[in-house]
Amino acid sequence: MDYTQNNPIPVPLEGPSWEVSSTIQTVFDWRYALERKNIMNLYEKGKALSWNASDIDWSIPVDIEALMAQRIRNGHGQVLNGVMKPPTPLNDKEMMQFQLNINAFLLSQFLHGEQGALVATARIVQSVPWEEAKFYAANQVADEARHVEVYHRYLTEKLGFSYPCVPSLATLLGRIMGDPRWDITFLGMQIMVEGLALAAFSVTRMQMADEPLIQDIITRVMGDESRHVAFGVLALERLYREEMSSTDLREREDFVIEATELLRERLLLTPVFEQLGFEPEVWTEWSRNTPFMRGFRQLMFAKIVPNLKRLGLLTPRVRAAYEKMDLLKYEHGKDSIEEAEPPPPTELVELLMQFMQAQAVATAPSTASS
Ligand SMILES: [Fe+2]
Ligand SMILES: [Fe+2]
Predict the structure, then answer these.
(1) Which letter does DSSP use for residue 59 in this model?
(2) How far is CA 323 from the centre of its chain?
């Protein structure tokens, strides 16, 4: 697909490419037993449901500034100051820039995470010991190439600006790709990074309900991602619950805790504060502690927690870490096998309702006086 890169993705200070070394084992499966029927079913589904990025209507005009300006005119700036309680209240212009940058930052990280999924899943094709998992991973690789394509096109042709990969996400991707153990690739990518992406996509789709192009893109991508997360659960369930020694499992617990901390770090929005000239330390501290931002970050784990539980990884050590981060409230949610796509997060729906009510109050005087 040919498209105009009006606004290329900024290259990180470290340079335009990044090499991560690890020595992995390439595994051939001469049995071709194809005995994991649930993975074969997923493979059939993946083939049947694949789509083409060219099918998207790229002629839909995108003017995020106009859209945000309209929201500000509708009183959103005042309401957001009330809900987010920033260190200093933002005027309309500042709030608009803040919202524009958060949107560009999150979408940019979606793109970089998709590239991570592309390379990690290509490795799974090579290293997973079962042929049926190689089949499905190959199908997922094609999905991920499309995801990189659509987010890249949206950011460079349509949106206007973007961000490089945030250091905490890069660290996590490096950690996943630097580890030679195939199950860690699954745990890091399919369970943690893609589990979070599924929740983040769902939130962005709700927040950008008035932008039809991104709605279409995210809906298509989410359909694929729900299968990818299910793939991770199906691949690891038996291994972790029945086959792995407690010593090896302990290393997976450490990995989960570290990955969770990095994923939370990614959502602190520090690069946005730097970009806007907001005091990064003051604003990052706000982001770390204010109830709105804490709630936003916790939402992102709504699917990861039930999936870890299904894998037998919600062990006392992981529970203790999650208790401190207030993430255990999601443990009774449905995992990705029971329910593929996450419903819109209840907390966010409630927040948007509050937002609408507050907006109605904020705009009431002008209505009353007319
Ligand atoms: Fe993806
Ligand atoms: Fe994916």
Answers:
(1) T
(2) 22
Ligand nearest to the CA of 194: 2
* SS3 call for 7: coil
Using a CB cutoff of 5 Å, list residues around ligand 2, an ion: 117, 194, 225, 228
Query: What domains can you pick out in the chain, each with its CATH number?
Result: 37-356 (1.10.620.20)
196/336 Cα distance (integer angstroms): 12
**What is the DSSP secondary-structure string of 283-344?**
HHHHHHH-HHHHHHHHHTTTTHHHHHHHTT---HHHHHHHHHTT-GGGTTS--TTT-SSPPP
pLDDT, averaged in runs of 10, over the chain (370 residues): 90 94 96 97 97 96 94 88 93 95 97 98 98 98 98 96 96 98 98 95 90 96 96 97 96 98 94 96 96 91 96 97 96 91 68 62 49
What's the CA-to-centroid distance between 282 and ligand 2, angstroms?
34
Q: How far apart are CA 160 and CA 104, in angstroms?
A: 9
> For residue 191, which ligand has an atom nearest its CA?
2
